[in-house]
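FIELD: query
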Amino acid sequence: MKPDVPSDARARLDAVVKAYDVRGIVGDALTDETVAALAAGFVDEVGAAGGQVVVGHDMRDSSPGFAAAFAAGATARGADVVSIGLCSTDESYFASGSMHAPAAMFTASHNPAAYNGIKFSRAGAQGISLDTGLSAIRDRAVDYLEQGIPDAPTRGSVTEVDVLADYAAYLRSLVDLSGTRPLKVVVDAGNGMGGLTVPAVLGTAAGLPELPLEIVPLYFELDGTFPNHEANPLEPANLVDLQRAVVEHGADLGLAFDGDADRCFVVDEQGGAVNPSAVAAIVALREIERVRAAGEDDVSAIHNLITSRFVAETIEAAGATAIRTKVGHSLIKDRMNETGAVFGGEHSAHYYFRDFWGADNGMLAAMHVLAEFGAQQGPLSALAARFTPYSLSGELNSTVDDVPAAYTRIFEAFTGRADFDEFDGLTVTGVTAESEPFWWFNVRPSNTEPLLRLNVEGGDAATMAAIRDEVLALIRG
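FIELD: result
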C-alpha cells in the first residue's frame, strides 16, 4: 500500500494526534491515508499481528469510511479485524474487554460534525495516551505515510460481529433495575449513539425483559450533522431542550448523552441540572457499599482534583480510601488499574468502573442513579441536594496570552491567605477558621488553546462567588 501523499506527513500526524486520542477536521489532516497509516502503526505498537483488533464507529458521515480505511491498514499488517459497526464508545470498550483485544473507536465525541477521530484501547479496554504508546503509533504512522504500508507475511481478515445485545445484558447484570419503582425518564441522545444504546439497555430492543421505566425519547435519530443541538451536554445551552421536556412531560428525571454516549448528564424533575460531582458521590457510595457487603475490606475510589470536596468526603465516610488524581481519562484508567479502585469520577461526567475493565461508561452511571433514585420515594431534586452540600462554579474559561503572568498575579494575591498545590495546574486552598466557610479553586491551562480553566468551590454560595470573581479579575488582568 503505497499512498500518494505530500511530504508533510509529520505535520499531518502532529496535527491530529492529541494527548489522549486522535482528533481533527475530516479531509484536512484526517484522511483515509492518515487513518490507514495509524492503523498499521497501532497494530505494530500493540503487537496485534496474528490476533484480533476491534473496530467500531459512531454515526458521523465520515465514520464508516474511516473504519474501512483502518481495517485496510490493520489487515495489511496482519491483524484480524473484528468490525462491530455502529456503537457507542463504551460499547467498544465492552468489546475490547470481553474479547481481550485492542480496539479503535471512530468518533469525535461531542465535537461538531466537521470533526472525527480515533479512541484507541489496548487489550482489555486499557487506555493509550501520548506517554503510553500513542506517540509511538504516531511515529510509526509517519513512516508508513511517507514510505507506504508493507504487507505482513500473512494478511489479516475482517469479520463483522454485533455486540449490542451482549453489551446490554452485561450492563443489566451489573445494575438490577427490575425492582425500582416506575419512573418516567426523558432521554436526550443528541442524535448521537445513545439513540442506539438506550433502547437496548433501558428498553427491550436487545431482547431483554421490560424494565419499570417509561422512556421519552428526544433526538434518538442517528445523525452526525447534529441538526438539533451539539451533542455536548457539558454546555448548558445543549441541556435546554431536555430540561423543558422533563417539565412538560411531568417526568421524574432526564438523562443527556454526548455524541459517542460515554458521558451522561442528569436533570431533576424541575429541570435543574444535577452536578456531575453529585452523580460521582452517589455512584461511589453504591459501589463501595456493594463490595464491602461482599467482604472487601481494602476499598478505594478515585476522584480527580476538580470534583467537589464532597466526593472525597463521601468515599471516606463509607470506609474507603479516596484517591485524588489529575484530570484525563487515559490517566484515570491507568490509576484505576494500578490501584484496583472500585470506581472513579470526574467533574466532566466521565465515570469509571472496576467491573467494566476500569473504563468509563456513562450508561452504567445512569443506571446507578436510576437504581438509587428508584429505591426511594422522594424527588430527584431532594436526593441531589443531599449530595451537593457545597457551591461549585462549574468550569470557567478565559483567553489568556501570558499564563505565567496570570499565575504570578494569583500567587501575589493569595499568599498568606491560602495554601498552594501544583499537582495539576494550580490549586489554591483557603486557610480559614473553623467557623468560616471553606474555599478552594483550581486554574489549569488548556492543552490545545490559549485558555485558562477555572473551577471554584465554596462552603456556601456567597463565598464561592466572591472567590470566583476575585480570581477571574486576576486571570483576565
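FIELD: remark
The longest strand covers residues 115-122.
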